[in-house]
């Protein structure tokens, strides 16, 4: 649910008037998203989001940080101060099945 809420809030920034959008995006990736990740950090375990094996929650975090945003670097940098979230994203990213999916995935226009 947290990720869904973050996505909804991000869409508001994307829909800002063009004259405000650039500053809105800068604020989102440098301030808003890192703060939201810090709030989520205390709910996430170090290796897996929940439990002791990979779950949809892990894949959701991975997809959110690595795939959802146009600004991939800004999204990745937003988790620099959240070691648990970063660990979960890296664990998913390093799965052979995910590596294979990423390498074979066709670019999408959206």
Describe the protein.
- The structure is a single chain.
- The protein is mainly alpha-helical and 110 residues long.
- The chain is built from six helices and no strands.
- The chain has helices at 2-14, 18-41, 56-68, 72-77, 83-93, 96-104.
- α1 packs antiparallel against α2 and α3 crosses α5 (83-93).
How many E strands?
0
Report low-confidence residues grouped into runs of 5 or more: none
Helix percent band: 55-70%
Backbone shape: globular
Kindly list the characteristics that best describe this protein.
single chain, 110 residues, mainly alpha, 6 helices, 69% helix, 0% strand, globular
Write the layout of secondary structure elements.
Blueprint: H1 2-14, H2 18-41, H3 56-68, H4 72-77, H5 83-93, H6 96-104
Task: Provide a brief overview of the structure.
The protein is mainly alpha-helical and 110 residues long. It has six helices and no strands.
